[in-house]
Amino acid sequence: MFGLSSIRLYVFLGMVLAIVLLGATSAVLWSRLGAKQAVIVSLTQQRDLAAGDAARWQGAAAQRQGVIDKQTQALRRLESDGQAARAIAAANTEKAEQRIAALEARISHLKETAHARPDDVRPLGPIVRDALPGLQH
User: Fold this and answer.
1) Reported pTM
2) Which of 28, 63, 67, 122 falls between 20 and 30 A from 78, CA-CA?
């Protein structure tokens, strides 16, 4: 039934079919390889883009940190200036209180002297009273 020529024909057709299948498989694999290479290129570009973004973000963060550091230094200077101003104000307040106490003591002494010697005291007239600011009623 099967002769040598038919076996040769089947072998030949089998080989042709195998070559066609291998060619198709090779074409599919090459197309997949091309797609994979395109994905690799795309991912490489994305990585480079992300690296650039990271570098820009680091630069911006460093710049913001510089601003924060400058503001921190300014706040510390203002804080120390405020403490110095509070110390000066406390000293000035103490001096003013001492001066007020001394003036009140002087006024009390003058009042006591005036009450002790009413003949030596002259009443202020309207002209003098108008000339002195703060004594007008």
Assistant:
1) 0.45
2) 63
**Residue-level length of the chain:** 137
- CB burial string 52-61: b at 16+ within 10 A, e below: eeeeeeeeee
| DSSP assignment letter at 134 | T
Give me the phi and psi of 123, to 5 degrees please.
Answer: -70, 145
Q: What is the band of 42 on the pLDDT scale with cuts at 50, 70, 90?
A: very high
Asked whether residue 92 carries a pLDDT value surpassing 60, the answer given is yes
Coil vs helix vs strand at 111: helix
pLDDT higher than 80, residue 75: yes
For 102: left if phi > 0, alpha if psi spans -120 to 50, otherwise beta; the answer is alpha
Report residue 51 as tokens: 């690296």
